[in-house]
Amino acid sequence: MELTTMWTEEGKKAGRAEVRVEGRVETTLHLTQRLLQNRLGTLPADLEAQLAQRSAEQLEQLFDAVFMLTSVTDLRAWLLANPPAAPSNGHTNGVA
Questions:
Q1: Span 58-81, mean pLDDT?
Q2: Of 34, 40, 50, 62, which shows the fewest CB atoms inside 10 Å?
Q3: 93 CA to centre of own chain
Q4: Mean pLDDT over all residues of the chain?
Q5: Percent of the chain having pLDDT more than 90?
Q6: Distance between CA atoms of residues 79 and 22, nearest Å
Q7: Does residue 92 have a pLDDT over 60?
Q8: How far apart (Å, rounded) are the C-alpha atoms in residues 13 and 31?
Q9: Where along the chain do its domains lie?
Q10: pTM score
Q11: Whole-number Å distance between alpha carbons of 56 and 25
């Protein structure tokens, strides 16, 4: 296989993986927002923005914690205790 063809294929695979991750984050965000709105009512815009900064894993943790939250104040405290994860550069060698 030619080097450029190999790079192209690797790029396509990486692109598909990125789309899957983005789709997972969007779906998890949407479901978590719906659950929070049903539990706590309409969320302030600043909290919506904070939720959008979270990773899929963090949103899943919040999804699990929703039933322990009884107010927007509880949600603010949870978000403060669980800040957004540091952005990754996509490498798996631990270097950000």
A1: 96
A2: 34
A3: 21
A4: 84
A5: 61
A6: 21
A7: no
A8: 27
A9: 3-81
A10: 0.68
A11: 5
> In whole angstroms, what separates CA 54 from the centre of its chain?
4
* Per-residue tokens: 39: 């539990």
Distant-in-sequence contacts of 76-84, Cβ < 8 A, 24+ apart: 76/47, 79/47, 79/50, 79/51, 82/54, 82/58, 84/50, 84/53, 84/54, 84/55, 84/58
pLDDT at 80 over 80: yes
Both tokens of 87, joined, read 């952005």
- Tell me the one-letter amino acid at 18: E
Interhelix angle 56-65/3-40, rounded to 10 degrees, is 20
Q: Length of the chain in residues, anyone?
A: 96
Model pLDDT for residues 8-36, shown as the tens digit of each residue:
777 766 676 566 656 778 999 999 999 99
Query: Which residues, 6 or more positions from 73, have their beta carbon under 8 angstroms from its beta carbon?
Result: none
